[in-house]
Specification:
Strand content: 35-45%
Number of strands: 8
Distance between the termini: 42 Å
Structural class: mainly beta
CATH topology: OB fold (Dihydrolipoamide Acetyltransferase, E2P)
Shape: elongated
CATH class: Mainly Beta
Radius of gyration: 15 Å
Helix content: under 10%
Order of helices and strands: EEEEEEEE
CATH architecture: Beta Barrel
Number of domains: 1
Strand order of the largest sheet: 1-8-6-3
Number of helices: 0
Length: 94
């Protein structure tokens, strides 16, 4: 079962952050509470931790993306679950 990774509450007057960098890649196994991604606001840099153990199945918000509180950052799949490979562009016709 997939688990959504969302932007947590950032602070009293902060409603938006920027994805600074992902610490894990799609397909990486992660433990519960392991740091997955760093977010930056005007005042602070914070890490978003995995809500459960599993495999990082999808990154929705790429590095540099602006995200609001509650926005979807990525998706965790079950530990050991196969991760779909990104679709490859079709080869041009000869």
């Amino acid at each position: 079962m997939a688990t959504e990774i969302k932007v947590p509450t950032l602070g009293e007057s902060v409603s938006e952050a920027t994805v600074a960098r992902w610490l894990k890649k799609v397909g990486d196994a992660v433990a519960a509470d392991e740091a997955l991604v760093e977010l930056e606001t005007d005042k602070v840099t914070l890490e978003v931790n995995a809500p459960s153990a599993g495999t990082l199945a999808e990154i929705v918000a790429a590095d540099g993306a602006n995200v609001g509180v509650g926005a979807l950052l990525g998706v965790l799949g079950e530990a050991g679950a196969a991760v779909a490979a990104p679709a490859k562009a079709a080869a041009p016709a000869a």
